[in-house]
Every structure is written in C-alpha cells, then in structure tokens.
Specification:
By secondary structure, the protein is an alpha/beta fold. It has a single domain, classed as 3-Layer(aba) Sandwich (Rossmann fold). 43% of the residues lie in helices and 13% in strands. The chain has nine helices and five strands, in the order βαβααβαβααβααα. The longest helix has 14 residues. It is globular.
C-alpha cells in the first residue's frame, strides 16, 4: 500500500470524513480508537457501528430494508460533519446493507473523505479474536458466516490495508494519508468553547509583558 492520500488533504474550513471498515477481528475498532487518541484535540467524533446497532438500538445484524442502524449511523455522521466535527466511522459495515447509505454520505460530503478497508484473512481474524483481552463468546463457524472477504465500497481512492502491516504503521498511515494529522479542529468545542479556552490558558500560563 502506498502512502498516497485518498483525496486531497484537508482544506481550511472543511470537516474530514474517515471510514474504516473490515471484517470482525480485523482490528478496525482498535485502529479507529488509536487514531482518535493520537489526534489528541477535541473536535474529532468517533461513530462505532457496534455501539449504535448493538448497544443503542439492540438491533440484530443481517439484511432487511427495515433495519434502523444504517440510517441512524448515516444521520449521526452527517450531523457531526454539519457541526464542524471531523468524523471517524468504523465497523464491519457490509456493503449489502450499508453500501448505498455510505456511498450516498460520501458523495454528498463536500469536504475531504478517506476510506480504508482492513484486508485480513479469515484465519487471521480468528487468531486475533482469540488474543483479545475479553474475547466475544463466538465460534469460528459463526465468524465464518459473517466473513465477507474484500468487501469494498468501490468509491474513488478507497485504500486497502494488508494484514501484514503492523498496528503502529496502520495508525500512522491513516493519520497522514487522510490529512487528519494536519487537520485543525473546526467544531465549536474547542474553537468557541469557554472551558477549552480556560484550560488552554491554564496550561500555557500567563504571558510575559
């Protein structure tokens, strides 16, 4: 994988959208959380598919046009972008159910967008699952039924991250090829937040006259 940006780097006044997808056990959630941690500043929203579908909605996965999660996730991401937040969206996000909402979201977003797919073999996803600090009680046969191979969105500039790329390199690659590493916060918090201003002043201390 070459370290080329998915789209043009972040321009002034444009919220940035990152989409990190992959099969269960591919490392997408850990990667997304570390990218957010490395950004350090406020103004970067993280929308996790499992949090919305499994925790907020308690909705089963699978097909069906009556599923609420795809629309709710797209609405949450759009609302955050409209509010000036850079956004990381992560999840399995199978194209069969999420493809059209995601492609529509990407097409309508006027700012920079960077899409990544964690291309990890089924055998490696099972191995990584077993190494989790708190493995989900699921058998490999069930994981096999979830596995969708290289399930790409097919949008311009979509980048495939191979399984042999180390975790630190993946995080650094996403930070820099997306433009997030250089992207200034645009959201009301911290740009117009009294508490953020007070904290910044306390950190820097009084200026010398």
């Amino acid at each position: 994988m070459t370290a080329e940006p998915c789209v043009e780097c972040n321009s002034a006044g444009s919220a940035l959208l990152l989409v990190i997808r992959g099969n269960s056990g591919s490392g997408k959630t850990t990667t997304a959380r570390e990218v957010r941690r490395r950004y350090e500043a406020r103004g970067l929203a993280l929308v996790e598919q499992d949090m919305v579908r499994r925790v907020i909605l308690r909705e089963h996965g699978g097909g069906g046009s009556d599923r609420v999660a795809p629309g709710l996730i797209a609405t949450m991401v759009q609302t955050a972008l409209d509010g000036g937040y850079h956004v990381i969206l992560e999840g399995i996000l199978h194209t069969g159910q999420y493809g059209d909402p995601l492609r529509d979201l990407i097409a309508k977003h006027p700012g920079p967008t960077a899409c990544y797919f964690m291309d990890v073999s089924f055998e490696e996803t099972v191995r990584r699952h077993r190494l989790r600090a708190e493995p989900i009680p699921v058998e490999p046969e069930t994981m096999r039924s979830w596995y969708a191979g290289q399930d790409l969105l097919g949008v311009p500039g979509e980048q495939v991250i191979p399984e042999d790329m180390g975790f630190a390199d993946v995080v650094t690659t996403i930070l820099h090829t997306s433009g997030l590493a250089e992207a200034a916060p645009l959201a009301p918090c911290p740009t117009r937040c009294a508490r953020c201003t007070e904290k910044a002043a306390a950190t820097t201390g009084p200026t010398e006259s």
